[in-house]
Amino acid sequence: MFRRRRTEGAPPPDAPDEPLAAQPMTVARPRREPSGMGLRGRPSGLGARLRSILGVATPAGEATWDEIEEALIGADVGPTTSLELIDAARERYRRSGGRTGDDVRRLLADEVRERLERVGSGRFELGSAPSVILFVGVNGTGKTTTIAKLAARLKAEGHSLLLAAGDTFRAAAIEQLRIWGEQVGVPVVAQRAGADPSAVAFDALTAAESRGTEVVLIDTAGRLHNKTQLMAELTKMRRVIERRLPGQPRHVLLVLDATTGQNGLAQAETFSAEAGITGIVLTKLDGTARAGVAVAIASRLGVPIVFVGVGEELDALAPFDPASYVEWLFAA
Amino acid sequence: MFESLSARLQSVTERLRGKAKITEADLDVALREIRLALLEADVNFKVVKPFVAHVRERALGSEVLTGLHPGQHVVKIVHDELVATLGGEQHVLQLAEKPSVLMLIGLQGSGKTTTAAKLAVRLRQEGRKPLLVAADVYRPAAVDQLVQLGDQIGIEVHSRPLGTPALEVARSGLEDARQRGFDLVIVDTAGRLHVDEPMMDELVRIVGVVTPAETLLVVDAMTGQEAVRVAEAFHARLPVTGLVLTKMDGDARGGAALSIRQTTGLPISFIGTGERTDGLEPFHPDRLAQRILGMGDILSLVERVQENVDQVEAERVAQRMMEARFTLEDFRSQLQQIKKMGPIGQVLQLIPGAGQMASAAQQAVDDGQLKRIEAVIDSMTTQERRRPELIKASRRRRIALGSGTSTAEVNRVLKQFGEMQRLMKQLGGRLPKLGGGLSGLFGR
Q1: 3-state secondary structure at position A50
Q2: pTM for the whole thing?
């Protein structure tokens, strides 16, 4: 009785079988300067800050390390992970006989890159068909948009695809996925608003099986990780998928907004426990956010970052590359 | 919200509380904890530094080190500084003109559309006649989303065919409101990055045409160090008048609020809690500061009770309690009243010292415990509810079957109810504390 009622009043009437209009269903945003898109177009600012702290040739003293800590915290790495990184970089500095500020910066960058690579960041394999991918995350991180982008990418690679509208809660979420499906040219399996998301997933798997579809991308409603009942709903969804197709879902991707602060750790931890996430998609990385919390997540929870979203366009999704991320993060 | 910050500060103050005298070294230990707590709460590091420095300065300048209650003194200083940072009086929306325009702006996914619906509901309660304007013309189905929300809450939504520029939608929305007698226009805009110049230009042009009386920046409470940069960028280009901090029902510590307030001077107008359209509360700096310190927030609770509880019914139940004639029917009615106040964890969070209980209670709710209790009571006959002593083995089995529970569960509900009844008899004429009867249910 105290459960969160997710709808107020009757669910809005839906029209699952209504044919989609033939004309374009979206309006493009004004195009930004090409340099504004992608990671390398704009320096993260952290490198410049480090350079001003470290200078180029002066040796690092105690006060310097404190300032580096602050710079990392300013990039959302968080106080705990920042200290860990600094301790590790100091150790390297001592052992390698580093001399200059540039050495410190390089060693710190190495430390971060290795931690990201160690957990398998940037690797994403579909494996043998069928491949079911479940998208989870808190509200407003960009799950539906990410699905559209990944669908466009996989379709271009020649895979057959199916999208499942598992966000049956948020107003017009189903329509949003339908429009994307239309635009990408990929079928969408949906039920009415308010339907059981597990049932939608089940339907999608059945449809995929009968059509011999290779990849199924399943959307879910955004949910705050501290709502236990909603997390249980996700656990159930996963269980239903596992039962219907043993060995699936192949991937459970946590969609994480790059502007998220330390709460990202709690998100990753809980979604990991309840839905068994296999990787992170970092969205909205085309702003000024440096997404240090993803470094903290990879480092402390061992979850790899697999994709990054860098814009509104369908092609604005790239595999995460630890080396270029770190280069961007620490570039002066 | 802010649980961990509260917990951290609480452990610091408890450590100090035990001491009659504290040294400067003690103070530094406390300040280190406070610094760390604020950073982990995502308060911007540029804000944390002066904050901690202020607390230290004031602590040293006062009699903290020699006074009778040094711990309490430090707490008071931290509290005062928090209030000072969160800032001044409550922001009252300036919407005197009819129609007035209120515009919502922010990054993608911060919660603008949901907030638009919540604000419409809230301002309608205050006697306004709002028109929602769907000016997010880019995100697929964003217009649909607002239209559906409008349907749910019974508020009209102005939308235009696909392809209409946002500026034109906003202009015709205002025109529509003027002609048809709406006295408030709430404009929902597309989410955009603060560094996206063409999109920022679009907002500037919309502002030029509809001249909003209030432009609220919607910020996700989970935002990290970027919050400051985002807020500063929007503030620099647009006449932002206040902030709405959303998703505060999560466990994000919400340090962004402190940071933005400190660096931009913008007031925090509302906080959004939950996806229900009534999940919007006015922001009270003093109350939030108290909540951060684990001092609870009785005023919000009182307000929420007044808004949601049927006074007549509540008084009837209270009367019966005092007369020790409290039945299972009254118990159920009490449960229903509390349900109306919203998620119980949120409610308990507001009670001083109940922070720990809040999560246990929310857990109980999420596990469906309370729902099962209600189901058990629902499956009884009126006779049984009034005279639970009638319920013997076969009735228990029937109730268990009817409620989809087990006889063990039925027994537990009856036992708990019996304890409540005994408690009320003991209380005699005194009014029981709100929710006091429920505490037994969460204590396990």
Answers
A1: helix
A2: 0.78
Alpha carbons B303 and A182: distance in angstroms, whole number? 48
Between A12-26, A169-183, B159-173, B212-226, the lowest mean confidence (pLDDT) is in: A12-26
Q: What is the DSSP letter of A18?
A: P
pLDDT of B176 reads 97
DSSP state for residue B381 in the 8-state scheme:
-
Which residues 150-169 of chain A have a CB within 8 Å of chain B? 169
Contact B188, B104 (CB under 8 A): yes
Residue A187 one-letter amino acid: P
Average pLDDT value for chain A: 86
CA–CA gap between residue B164 and residue B138 (Å, rounded): 10
Strands A161-164 and A188-189: parallel
CB contacts < 8 Å between A and B, how many? 210
> What residues of B are in contact with residue A139 (Cβ under 8 Å)?
109, 111, 247, 275
pLDDT of residue A17 exceeding 50, the answer is no
A100 touches chain B (CB under 8 A): no
* Rounded CA separation B48/A79 (Å): 12
**A94: contact with B, CB 8 A cutoff:** no
Of the candidates B104, B92, B118, B106, which has an alpha carbon nearest to the alpha carbon of residue B284?
B92
- Nearest residue of chain A to residue B222 (CA atoms): A260
CB A284 within 8 A of CB A270: no
DSSP string of B12-36?
HHHHHHT-SS--HHHHHHHHHHHHH
Whether B284 has a pLDDT exceeding 90, the answer reads no
**Tokens matching residue B84:** 């000072």
Task: Using the predicted structure, report yes or no on whether residue B225 has a pLDDT greater than 50.
Answer: yes
Is the pLDDT reported for residue A47 higher than 70? no
| pLDDT tens profile A271-315 | 999 999 999 999 999 888 899 999 999 999 999 999 999 988 899
Amino acid, res. B374: E
Supply the ipTM of this predicted assembly. 0.87
